[in-house]
From TrEMBL:
Residues 3-123 form the Semialdehyde dehydrogenase NAD-binding domain. GO terms for molecular function: N-acetyl-gamma-glutamyl-phosphate reductase activity; NAD binding; NADP+ binding. The active site is at residue 131. This is N-acetyl-gamma-glutamyl-phosphate reductase. Its main location: cytoplasm.
Amino acid sequence: MTRVGIVGGAGYAGGELIRLLLLHPQVKIVFVQSKSNAGNYLYDVHADLFGDTDMQFTKEISSEIDVLFLCLGHGNSKVFLQENKIKKGIKIIDLSQDYRLKASAENFVYGLPELNKTIIKNAEYIANPGCFATAIELALLPLASKNKLPDNIFINAITGSTGAGQKLSETSHFSWRANNISVYKAFQHQHLDEIGESLKQLQPEFKGNIKLIPERGGFTRGIFASLIVESELSADELYQLYALYYQNHPFTHISLKGLDLKQVINTNKCLISIEKYQNDLLITSAIDNLLKGASGQAVQNMNLMFNLEETTGLKLKASAF
């Protein structure tokens, strides 16, 4: 049984992680830390956990664990690890962006299983990828693996309100977000750097001219990314390339049909559709930002690190409605 500790368990990613781990057959949650909620029951914050657990948030952390999940805001994981000495032998999976880039990675491995599965299995520390980065990288990795990425990549990606975190802001307030759509951080989203690094891992000569237009959608969860690249490959060649690349990756699936975001909500799947229009290739990629884009992928990484079946605790089904 793998003993787990969670730091920063009061946010959306923390709540989703708790739900997954409570149902995981090989996991025991030892503690869930939250300074602002210490003493409160988990279900006081995550109401859907009522009836599932009587655990309370703690202020302190325990060293009697095998793996520590950090569900802290960006910048806070690094501070936490500087202020708290973690016992040697405890594995760490960080869901923030603090260690994703090579320049700041220290001993952390970039935790995209479809790119680094072998390395993840032997890693001590994992930097869990960003949600936009996951959807976009999975859409492009097969092309990069054969040096087929063109110089220019155009992307439109829309995300649900949970991607902004639990703290209320002007652009996440229901009355503003519902029935609305808006562009933000055009051409300069923070995930662009990790996307570029991952693609260059497979195609070192890639120039990294990625033009990303992120959008806020009027729904709660999910990311739907549409990418346009030039490709001389035929539709059949592209399908074979993508199918071959992902044949040993149980959560990523390729379709020649159009996708719906609802196909991936509440699952750890990434669905990718490829459609050829003359010399243009349209790639659509859909994930649940809280699962494959955050907590589900973190559990997937934990499974790999502890030599468990990769899909353990993650065989989740999307709702038809």
